[in-house]
Amino acid sequence: MKAKSRLSRCLDDKIRGYLDEYFDRYLEAPAGVLEAYEYVQGRDSLLNRTKKQVLEMSIKRVLEEKGGEITGKNHRKSHGDVEKDHSIEKEAFFRENLSGIKAKKESESVLNSEGDVVYQKELLKSGNSSLNNEEIMKDQFYGISESKRRNKTEKSDIPNKRSKVNGNYNPPKGIMFDDLGGIDECINEILEYIVMPLMHPEVYSYIGIQIPRGVLLHGPSGCGKTLLANAIASEIGLPFISISAPSIVSGMSGESEKKIRDMFNEAKSIAPCLIFIDEIDVVTPKRENAQREMERRIVAQLLTCMDDLSLDKTGGKPVLIIGATNRPDSLDPALRRAGRFDHEICLNVPSEIGREKILRTLLKKVRLSGDFDYKKLAKMTPGYVGADLSSLVTTSGIVAIKRIFRLLQNNTSSNEKTLTQSNMNSSNSSDKNNNHAFNMDLNSFVSDNFQNTAIIQRFLKTYPDTLPDDVLSLMCITIDDFLEAIPKIQPSSKREGFATVPDVTWADVGALKSIRMEMQMAIVQPIKHPELYERVGITAPSGVLLWGPPGCGKTLLAKAVANESRANFISVRGPELLNKYVGESERAVRQVFSRARASVPCIIFFDELDAIVPRRDDSLPESSARVVNTLLTELDGLNDRRGIYVIAATNRPDIIDPAMMRPGRLDKPLFVELPSEDERYEILKTLTKKTPISSSVDLLQIAKDQRCQNFSGADLAALVREAAVLALRNTFFMDLFTEKILQNDFHHIPLYIEQYHFDKAFLTIRPSVSDKDRDRYYNLNRRYGCLATESS
């Protein structure tokens, strides 16, 4: 008991110090136990762990010691001389009892009654919600005058005071649906699930159904989720609470949940209202995978607050939440059920038509050349999202400025000289001195070795003042500026797991003409002209399995197809999907197809397919069997594969599960065989396009050489590379041990690859396929060739 009494005294001493501090700060006592309780908790976070009943009892004891009677009514300090010492005024106030206050009221009412009545009527007439009729009656009873009440109102903006401060919840301006491009596919969902419930909740109440409480926007980074949420708020014109999810997290226990409660309470008070939580996946992970207990509490608090958004609990005024994330699968499943985030809107990677609309929107106010081709630019930017296209516009503008600066520098016409002279004459002598000093600083700071910087430097010398209108009229962006800027932009889709469209074209692929035609009909033309295939009833895309000896160009073919179709391209190396943790390999497979569905048309290329879909039998581990089942389900399951084209490559088709090659999956196996003599000649011509070959070298004779028997395309590339290295060594690297290298005028020394370089290369390069392996592949072709004929 003594220990308990000692703890109570320590708590009372701490509370007494905080209440003394309260009076010194606000020149008045707490309105009651509740206000004192909130202030004390705000001053000391450790008191949050103390039971509420214990803390309230301590506050009551301290107030009773000070002489105040806790009756549940609001108390205010007397109207004393504020210039007295604070300590004397504080002790006098706490000794003052209720009868003293009444007596004081009677003495002051004669002087202040008329002014107070007028002030109170004005407040009621203006609709001030912070002072209602009941509070005015209480203030009249306790003798609080007009000046005292005004002082109380002026102190309400003190941050440590536990009072609600209204924020600015006006909707954003200057952005509407017309300012966005490529949202035609989701505009109907936005109107149905967001705009209609907020603008006409009475329809839902009359019918007797609940309005949607939340909508989840998801898609890759940069696709415009945040911009779309702001456009929605601007269109409907209702109060808009926008918050970034990381700002909810607080270091003190319980503060994060309190921020969520305060946000929802504020939304209810200003309803109808729209709440936008950006990057919501940061604070709402799956609770079974949460790293900290705080994350579980935040999820639970958000679930509880969303359940309280029904119309009967908000007074018939709707409150709707929009969440944005690029990782919807990481959210807790309870958030994605009906009654919370009822609907999900996916913002996909825009198609070619969508990119064209986005570009037209972005370039509305940009000065373009008269012959600007939007369709060509949209076709050249596969995988680009809205943020990438916006960055492309900015970068192309910089390219255009440098181009125009360069033209102005090279322009020696009389107009240019006249403009320069007029600019120089327009400045006074002091300006000339300043410009000369400025140019001298540029000369000392910038080196002429940097060409782009030198262009700007020379331009600043020539045009030190504001450019005249006739020079500004030359400023415009051409399609060539955009094409020059495209390589400088890394698409967001590449960081999201997509691969950029390869630079390999059909011209880089030697031979394989029959395979090219099959790939054209199976992949390229369905992407370019889907309407033609729909006319004959073909809607589901077919899958292609490229198989054959290693080094025959299977991967090269897939890259050429992706380049010609200009579709989004996802390259998957089979082993990289495998994970040692249970379920992670299957999740990786599902994620690949999920990304593909979000960016149709899309080509998925599985290299080394045999690594992830081996034949299922009793010897196969259960984990590998689950991966095979997952891939089979994605290829031909419940999910729609419209617009997703699958190309797989392997050199071991015999160990692939047979179910992979049934119709509807990889139903078109194509045998990429070793090249013939004529095909080897075509491959050699392709490989030596940029190689200085001597006129004495006969590529046809090399292709027909018996030493090239069983050579694949990769073997021929190694042969050409080895011959080129030998030519370099014989010409420039005479003695590698003493490092005697010809360094003087080596650009003028002729360099050619001679026949004897190829002869020496044949001594080190061997075919990667033996006669036995070649016979085995031809035997497999007789089996899978029949399959291909039947499926086609």
**Secondary structure: helix percent:** 40-55%
Please describe the biggest sheet, giving its number of strands, its sense, and whether it closes into a barrel.
Answer: 5 strands, parallel
Q: According to CATH, what is the class of the largest domain?
A: Alpha Beta
Q: Tell me how many strands there are.
A: 12
Weakly predicted, low-confidence segments: 68-166, 412-450, 786-792
Terminal Cα span: 91 Å
Q: Strand arrangement, largest sheet?
A: 2-3-4-1-5
Number of helices: 31
CATH-defined architecture of the largest domain:
3-Layer(aba) Sandwich
CATH level-4 homologous superfamily of the largest domain: P-loop containing nucleotide triphosphate hydrolases
CATH level 3 topology of the largest domain:
Rossmann fold
Structure description:
The protein is an alpha/beta fold and 792 residues long. The protein has 5 domains: 1-66; 177-348, P-loop containing nucleotide triphosphate hydrolases (Rossmann fold, 3-Layer(aba) Sandwich), CATH 3.40.50; 364-414 and 453-492, Orthogonal Bundle (Helicase, Ruva Protein, domain 3); 499-671, P-loop containing nucleotide triphosphate hydrolases (Rossmann fold); 677-768, Helicase, Ruva Protein, domain 3, CATH 1.10.8.60. It is built from 31 helices and 12 strands. It has a 5-stranded parallel beta sheet with strand order 2-3-4-1-5, sandwiched between helices. Strands 7-8-9-6-10 form a 5-stranded parallel beta sheet. Helix 25 (584-597) links the parallel strand 7 (568-573) and strand 8. Helix 2 (33-43) crosses helix 3 and helix 11 packs parallel to helix 12. It is elongated. The N and C termini lie far apart (91 Å). Residues 68-166, 412-450 and 786-792 have low confidence and may be disordered. Residues 211-351, 540-676 form the AAA+ ATPase domain. GO terms for molecular function: ATP binding; ATP hydrolysis activity; preribosome binding; RNA binding. It is found in: Nucleus.
